Each structure stands twice: as structure tokens, then as C-alpha cells.
């Protein structure tokens, strides 16, 4: 399929492009999906073709029709010049960062970033001579004041991991790029866009140079897959592709196939996760045990104005701050839940809850929520059943208080 020119889908809406992008049944004997190509070695038809690498495919790490089906579809949906696929979301973030900074450079990272992103910055990039500063996620255009002569990348994430602050991404991107135009040395705006996906926040249209998606979450939709995608605009695509090829950070073909399968229904699932998530957030907000709900889709959330301006909707992940209770009461609430599972990751069909505490790793801002914090992912169970499960949980919490 990849030898044929990708179809022009630009006149269609995002949901339609999601169904048709990266797929050419005519080149697959009419079968709807591109099959799983497994392989390391690719044979060249002649000596001359081999010497001049004259072939669409040359080696398994560099690309296969299965991988290209996914990356072409993702570029179409994200509005990117190109996309690379990686074996996890964290790998997608690391390749974005490695493509953007070198020894002696300065990197700005939002204090609300996914914690393993921080660990990669502090544990790997710092060892290679990159200086890292964490900044207040609400900096907005004020990011310009934090930029140094050698600032080469700025990492954003909206809303923040666990804490759900909404960043003004267009304002940050504009300020960063204006600084680059001034001193002739640009900085790359990198975004972890996992929460929204390009369906709810088109990253490159909003000024992001390199966008990262943990496909592990909504691309899979089944908690059965680890995968990442890193997309870039035209200016940053060559550097991203080069870095990716140096690492040969290619995912396994079955995982890519599963991601393609999930991709086709992602719009439908995401809108249901979003709708049910907001319903549950409102219900939780009205509970006497709850101090605050962290969900930018709620009208009284501090990030709501930016959210309605920049986002087409919410996904199913949000936070809840409980009124102060002893830890044993939180444990009693969570231990007896029948439908909500306790575990990391999210984006699958099932509801999840985990306790979290940002105080242990934040460095630029103080996290003082006023009570125990829980992160919820709302799955595709019936909301009434989820409410009953939580209602019983709150009864256990009160009893143990
Ligand atoms: C899960 C997650 C990642 C990492 O994805 P993995 O596939 O688990 O490595 C990155 N960013 C965010 C915001 C995530 O939630």
C-alpha cells in the first residue's frame, strides 16, 4: 500500500479520516486491512537496486507496510509531516527529546509532566549534559522569561499528568517561537498529547512542533498493548526521523496491527469515555465526601476557558480530591470496589482508580490539594453501576473515618 500515493482525505472530517487513512485495499488483494508484515531481511531485485538502496523497503527496522499504515494514518489525523512508531509511550517521548536537545542545551519541562518523563530527563538527558528546568504549568506566555540563550526545547502537557492543570499551549508555542525568531536559534515545542489525542486537540495546528501519543491508552482501548507515536511538523520531521533511525526503536508488528485496529474505532470510544467521564465528574463533584474535582470540562475548573477554546472535548481521565480523611478510610473505600480496578495506565474499556501524590516529585510548584487525591479513568461500564460502586465505597470510607 505504501508504494501507492496516500489518498487525499483533507476534505473529510476527523472521524472519516480515522477510518480511511493509511489503508489501500486495492494493493492488498481487496482485503480491508493491511496485514502483519513480519521481517528483518528485505530482498532487492538486482545488484544495482541493492547498491543504490532503490526499494521502498530496505530493512525491518526502517519500516514495513504494517508500520507505515499506522504512521501514515497518524500523520493524517495529527496533521503532521511525519510520524514514527515506538514500542511504548515513554519511548515516543524519549525519541522526541533526543531529537531536540544536545549536550550544553537547556530544556524547559512543565512541572505537571508525566513522572517517567521527568525521570528520563533527570536520569538520562542530565547525564548527557542537558540542563533541565521545571516550570510552572500555568506560565503561559511568561515562558519567554524562563528561556535562556541555549534553551532548545520546551515540553508541555495539557492537562497535566495527575494534577490536570490546563496549559495555554498556543500562547507558550507562540512565545517560544517568537524568542527563536529573535535570537535566530529556535527551540522545539514538544507536547505530550496523550490525554486528548489529536481528535480533541490537533497539536501541530496549535503550534506544537513534535507531539507524542501513548498509543497504549486510547489507540489500544483494550489494555492489551504498549505503543507510542511521535509526530512532527515539516521543520522538525527530518531530525525526528534521523534520531529514530539511529535508535531503531521499532515496535513489534502484532502490536502495530492491534493499534491500527484500535485506531479505526477510537473516535467513537473516546467520545463515550468523555461523555461518561464528565457525567461521573459532575456526580462526584456533588458528593459530600469530595472537596474538589480536577476536570477541565467542568465550568468551575480553573482551566475551563482554555479547554473550551482549544479542545474539542474531554477524554475519560480526571482527578478527585477528597475532604481530609485518614489513609485507612481511603484504603477501605478502594479495597471493596467491585467495578473500578486499581492499576496504572488507562484508556482501556474498563474503569480504574489510583491514589496519587504529586508532592513527592514536584520541584517548581507546590502541590497542596487539601486532601487525599484519586485519579479516575471512566470505562465503558454503565454510569449508574459505577455510581453505585462508588456510593458503596463512600459508605466504607465514612465508616472507617
Ligand atoms: C501512559 C502515559 C505515557 C507513557 O506511555 P507508556 O506506553 O506506558 O510508556 C506517557 N504520557 C502520558 C501522559 C501517559 O499517561
TrEMBL record:
Swiss-Prot/TrEMBL cofactor(s): pyridoxal 5'-phosphate
Keywords: Lyase, Pyridoxal phosphate
Biased segments, Basic and acidic residues type: 1-10
Stretches the record annotates as Disordered: 1-26
Chemical reaction(s) catalysed: L,L-cystathionine + H2O = L-homocysteine + pyruvate + NH4(+)
Membership in a protein family: Belongs to the trans-sulfuration enzymes family.
Name of the protein in question: Cystathionine beta-lyase MetC
Organism annotation: Methylobacterium jeotgali
Amino acid at each position: 500500500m505504501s508504494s501507492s500515493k496516500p489518498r487525499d482525505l483533507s476534505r473529510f472530517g476527523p472521524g472519516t479520516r480515522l477510518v480511511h487513512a493509511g489503508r489501500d485495499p486495492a494493493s492488498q488483494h481487496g482485503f480491508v486491512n493491511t496485514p502483519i508484515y513480519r521481517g528483518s531481511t528485505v530482498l532487492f531485485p538486482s545488484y544495482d537496486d541493492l547498491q543504490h538502496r532503490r526499494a521502498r523497503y530496505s530493512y525491518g527496522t526502517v519500516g514495513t507496510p504494517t508500520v507505515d499504515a499506522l504512521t501514515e494514518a497518524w500523520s493524517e489525523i495529527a496533521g503532521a509531516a511525519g510520524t514514527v512508531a515506538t514500542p511504548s509511550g515513554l519511548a515516543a517521548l524519549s525519541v522526541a527529546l533526543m531529537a531536540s536537545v544536545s549536550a550544553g542545551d537547556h530544556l524547559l519541562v512543565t512541572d505537571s509532566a508525566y513522572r517517567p518523563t521527568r525521570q528520563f530527563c533527570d536520569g538520562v538527558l542530565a547525564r548527557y549534559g542537558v540542563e533541565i528546568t521545571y516550570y510552572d504549568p500555568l506560565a503561559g506566555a511568561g515562558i519567554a522569561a524562563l528561556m535562556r540563550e541555549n534553551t532548545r526545547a520546551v515540553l508541555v502537557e495539557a492537562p497535566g499528568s495527575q494534577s490536570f492543570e490546563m496549559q495555554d499551549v498556543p500562547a507558550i508555542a507562540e512565545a517560544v517561537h517568537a524568542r527563536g525568531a529573535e535570537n535566530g536559534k529556535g527551540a522545539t515545542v514538544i507536547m505530550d498529547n496523550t490525554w486528548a489525542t489529536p481528535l480533541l486537540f490537533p497539536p501541530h495546528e496549535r503550534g506544537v512542533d513534535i507531539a507524542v501519543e501513548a498509543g497504549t491508552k486510547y489507540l489500544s482501548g483494550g489494555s492489551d498493548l504498549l505503543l507510542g507515536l511521535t509526530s512532527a511538523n515539516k521543520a522538525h520531521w527530518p531530525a525526528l526521523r534521523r534520531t529514530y533511525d539511529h535508535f531503531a526503536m521499532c515496535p513489534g508488528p502484532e502490536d502495530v496491527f492491534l493499534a491500527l485496529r484500535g485506531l479505526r474505532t477510537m473516535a467513537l470510544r473516546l467520545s463515550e469515555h468523555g461523555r461518561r467521564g464528565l457525567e461521573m465528574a459532575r456526580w462526584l463533584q456533588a458528593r459530600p465526601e469530595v472537596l474538589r474535582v480536577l476536570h477541565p470540562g467542568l465550568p468551575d475548573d480553573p482551566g475551563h476557558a482554555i479547554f473550551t477554546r482549544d479542545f474539542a472535548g474531554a477524554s475519560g481521565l480526571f482527578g478527585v480530591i477528597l475532604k481530609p480523611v485518614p489513609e485507612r478510610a481511603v484504603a477501605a473505600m478502594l479495597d471493596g470496589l467491585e467495578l473500578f480496578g486499581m492499576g496504572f495506565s488507562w484508556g482501556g474499556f474498563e474503569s480504574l482508580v489510583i491514589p496519587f501524590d504529586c508532592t513527592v516529585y514536584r520541584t517548581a510548584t507546590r502541590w497542596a490539594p487539601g486532601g487525599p487525591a484519586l485519579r479516575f479513568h471512566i470505562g465503558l461500564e454503565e454510569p449508574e453501576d459505577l455510581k453505585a460502586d462508588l456510593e458503596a465505597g463512600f459508605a466504607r470510607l465514612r465508616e472507617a473515618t
